[in-house]
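Technical note accompanying the year-one report. For the benefit of new consortium partners, we illustrate the data format agreed upon in the data management plan: each record pairs a sequence with a structure-token string. No post-processing was applied to the example shown here.
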Amino acid sequence: MIAEVLHCIFSNASRFAQTGGCITVAPRPAPRGFVLTIVDDGPGMSDLEILRATEPSPAWVAGAPGAPASASLPVAGRLMELHGGRLTIEATPGAGCTVALAFPEERMG
């Protein structure tokens, strides 16, 4: 399931990163586990766009024709929850996005 989470996040980031741009991945320890951050240099998102991108909609299925590019984000978020973790997104319009995947200590090792 973690491979699917990473696929969702990286495919989304690669769709929005600027041509010749950069996607940065950085792991770091956290008080009760670790966090993997994925940062892209794409167009960013407003708070409303983040909310819309992370809430599942019955009107589409991830990967379906016409589905928004971010359709896989709710799937990734739910998979993280099933692992006891959390997916968060921070972004500023025009300044890229940072996705943080927080993994609990019991999932390490």
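Partners are asked to follow this layout when depositing records. The first helix runs from residue 2 to 16.
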